[in-house]
Design a protein that fits this description.
This protein folds into three domains: 94 residues, Immunoglobulin-like (Sandwich), CATH 2.60.40.10; 126 residues, TonB-dependent receptor, plug domain (Ferric Hydroxamate Uptake Protein, Chain A, domain 1), CATH 2.170.130.10; 497 residues, Beta Barrel (Maltoporin, Chain A), CATH 2.40.170. The chain is built from six helices and 39 strands. Strand 33 and strand 34 form a beta hairpin. The longest helix has 17 residues. 6% of the residues lie in helices and 55% in strands. The two termini are 55 Å apart. The protein has a 22-stranded antiparallel beta barrel. The chain has a four-stranded antiparallel sheet with strand order 3-2-5-6, with no helix packed on it. The chain is mainly beta and 725 residues long. One of its GO terms (cellular component) is cell outer membrane. One of its GO terms (molecular function) is siderophore uptake transmembrane transporter activity. It is found in: Cell outer membrane. It is a multi-pass membrane protein.
Length: 725
């Protein structure tokens, strides 16, 4: 009996040493606030959540080392390794706030992975918080996200299809290069409908370089670069879902998921957009086309070691858009109603990237993409159909040593456009570009940083009528000077080029109809620069203030211009007189107690085409644009936003001027633990072009359409639900 009791107590003692209940308390490092947090035992699927006091109890089954992955909304994810048995029954873990200043944002578009405060090149960022807010307004694409940024305008190019392009500094959309994670797959023919086919749900950040950026990204980056940076998987899985509906018949259903293990990780985006026809002014023509669009984008992340990452992805988007006469769309054509424009698109982009750390502060990055863009346009008695194949290769070596950072690399691009037999023309074009580039960043001191770069490209473009090869040497230099902790400035200048293309904003508006094949035209060359001054300072204990003022200037030599050589017959030619864009942007931000944020932005743009006689102002470029936004946010509780935008008068192609106009919007989001509800009142003052003049002219059989210079759909209400796990 005594032996039995001894064995019993011995067993109990062993068991008690082999397991432990540990009380864990999660707090914020700033003020020891208790947090609602999640804890995951690394290497397992076991997860735990704190209660309202920020505490939880975890029963560890056996002795040994455990790694806890702790995460909370608004705080940096943290890993904590402990040994069981633990010396105490309670463990307190502090998390650092992720509500960092803009200076701490790391940018990728300059390839050196520096914080924004230490990059000589001027880079603007749209961060995850703002992306999340703008996706409430338009979850289907990034048009709203960009259009409400200072110095950027999303220009609608078609009254029936709703297509749009991105303009920076008042220049045509073909001069802005769009990138997704550094891959250039949205140029030339592929730029068609591109802004409408990039969803925001998987974006972590948007980086914008205004002014010449050709040394790193080659042709097409004359006005600037917009780089959409995707989310990457983390140890804590992320699952989000959005459902949105508007009063004008627009529906969006989308989801994003990501997770990471020791050797593998993944992200996947899926989105379906649907829109019914909408005719707000009752003229029998659509302001919003009927459309259906589906996007799926899975990415696989492979981690062979702690020093290397392999990323493989494929994005597929398929869409149909039908606009024009409402009766034709709903009931079919008859003798009095026949005009309709149908767009069918298929976009597939395959990407692969290898990122290897070769040693201390040395990396080798190799990127490869292949994309296919297939589009067909049908209007009465005319069909356009074409497919573009694009291959992009980039290999770069990056090293950071003491005060110096060096980027060396090479690119090769191949672009083939094939106009299909069902189309009424044969305008096949091929372009091949190879280049070498280098960029050196020198931290001369804590206050002075200099960045200089050079790119040499050899570009060949050819078709059945002619072939041409050109060599471009593209220097660029940028200087950052920090005068004090409050004052700093950047100045930069460089050169750029754009090879000839049939696909511009102008030819999009006429569905590429009656446009001659390119013949004996050359690349456009540019010279430009930016200079800015920055100030930031607290005003008292509760108010923070930041201010930025930037001047810009771009000169485009021998611009490619679409000439009307006969009635409704067009040809591209190089003009001897240049296009010049100059102006400035001013931005101010006030933050009161982290809850109230006031943004003010003003853009002055003076863009002229010197080849024009008389009035030389380029059409659809407002001289004045004012952006304002007042945001109230109580973290994890509610968001409220009131926005107002004023756009000044614009010249149209016929020399007439539009009136200035204002647009106001209001957004509210109520946040719960696992989901949020949002509502958005866009353009609640109902500003629309048809209140000034009808957009559609002529008969229903052969209508003509005015240039689009403001909203066409008027006041829109949308709302929905977002789920996050």
């Amino acid at each position: 009996m005594r032996l039995f009791i001894l064995l019993l107590f011995t067993s109990i003692s062993i068991i008690s040493k082999a397991q432990q209940n540990l009380i864990i308390k999660i707090t914020g490092s700033e003020n020891k606030t208790s947090l609602t947090a999640s804890v995951l035992l690394k290497g397992t699927t076991k997860g735990y959540t704190t209660d309202t006091t920020g505490t939880m109890s975890i029963a560890f089954p056996s002795n040994g080392r455990y790694t806890l992955i702790i995460s909370a909304v608004g705080y940096e994810e943290k890993e904590e390794t402990i040994t069981i048995p633990y010396s105490s029954d309670t463990l307190e873990i502090e998390l650092e706030s992720s509500s960092h200043e803009m200076d701490e944002v790391v940018v990728q578009s300059t390839r050196t992975s520096r914080t924004i405060a230490n990059v000589p090149t001027r880079v603007e960022t749209i961060e995850l918080e703002e992306i999340d807010e703008k996706s409430n307004m338009r979850p289907g694409n990034v048009a709203m996200l960009l259009n409400e940024s200072t110095g950027i305008r999303v220009q609608q190019t078609s009254a029936t299809s709703g297509n749009a392009s991105i303009r920076i500094q008042g220049l045509d959309g073909r001069y802005t290069q769009l990138l997704k994670d550094g891959f250039a797959n949205f140029g030339n023919f592929s730029s068609g409908l591109s802004v409408l086919e990039i969803p925001p749900l998987d974006l972590a950040q948007v980086e914008i370089i205004k002014g010449p950026a050709s040394p790193l990204y080659g042709g097409g980056a004359i006005a600037g670069v917009v780089n959409f940076i995707s989310k990457t998987p983390k140890a804590k899985p992320e699952y989000s879902f959005v459902l949105n509906q508007s009063n004008i018949g627009q529906s969006n259903v989308g989801g994003f998921a990501s997770a990471r293990g020791k050797k593998l990780g993944y992200t996947v985006l899926a989105l379906y957009n649907k829109s019914n026809t909408y005719d707000v002014d009752k003229d029998d023509f659509t302001e919003v086309p009927e459309s259906k669009e589906f996007t799926i984008h899975p990415k696989l992340f492979i981690y062979p070691s702690s020093r290397s990452t392999i990323t493989i992805g494929n994005s597929l988007t398929s869409g149909q858009r039908t606009g024009g006469d409402i009766q034709v769309i709903k009931s079919g054509a008859d003798a009095a109603h026949q005009y309709v424009e149908k767009n069918k698109t298929l976009r597939n982009i395959s990407t692969a990237e290898v990122d290897m750390k070769l040693g201390n502060n040395k990396r080798l990055v190799a990127k490869q993409s292949f994309s296919v863009f297939d589009r067909e346009i049908n209007i009465p008695a005319y069909t356009f159909a074409g497919v573009e194949y694009n291959s992009y290769t980039d290999v770069s070596f990056i090293t950071n040593a003491n005060e110096h950072a060096l980027v060396l690399g090479g690119t090769f691009g191949y672009n083939l456009f094939n106009e299909k037999d069902k189309s009424q023309n044969n305008r096949d074009n091929t372009a091949t570009t190879g280049g070498l580039y280098g960029q050196h960043t020198w931290d001369a001191s804590d206050r002075i940083k200099l960045e200089s770069g050079l790119r040499v490209d050899v570009a060949n473009y050819r078709n059945s009528l002619y072939t041409n090869t050109e060599v471009f040497a593209l220097p660029r230099v940028s200087l950052l000077v920090k005068y004090s902790s409050k004052w700093s400035s950047r100045i930069g200048a460089g050169m750029g080029y754009k090879t000839p293309t049939l696909f511009t904003e102008e030819t999009e508006t006429i569905q590429y109809q009656n446009v001659e094949q390119l013949n004996n035209v050359k690349s456009e060359k540019s010279y430009g620069g930016t200079a800015d001054i920055n100030f930031r300072s607290p005003i008292g204990e509760d108010l923070a203030f930041t201010f930025n003022h930037m001047f810009f200037y771009t000169w485009i030599d021998k611009p490619l211009v679409l000439d009307d050589v006969a009635t409704d017959h067009y040809r591209f030619v190089n003009r001897t007189e240049p296009v010049r864009s100059a102006g400035f942007e001013t931005n101010a931000k006030f933050i009161y107690k982290e809850n109230f944020k006031l943004f003010l932005g003003y853009t002055f743009t003076d863009t002229k085409a010197k080849y024009l006689y008389g009035n030389q102002f380029l059409p659809l470029v407002p001289k004045d644009k004012l952006n304002t936004a007042l945001i109230y946010e109580k973290e994890d509780v509610i968001k409220l936003g009131l926005e107002g935008y004023f756009t000044g008068r614009q010249y149209l192609s016929d020399g007439t001027r539009t009136p200035g106009f204002s647009v106001f919007g209001f957004m509210a989001e109520k946040i719960f633990s696992r989901f949020s509800l949002f509502i958005n009142l866009e353009n609640f003052t109902d500003t629309r072009q048809s209140t000034y003049k009808n957009v559609v002219n002529g008969s229903h059989l052969s209508p003509t359409f005015d240039e689009i210079w403001t909203h066409t759909e008027g006041f829109v209400i949308n709302g929905g639900i977002k789920l996050k796990f």
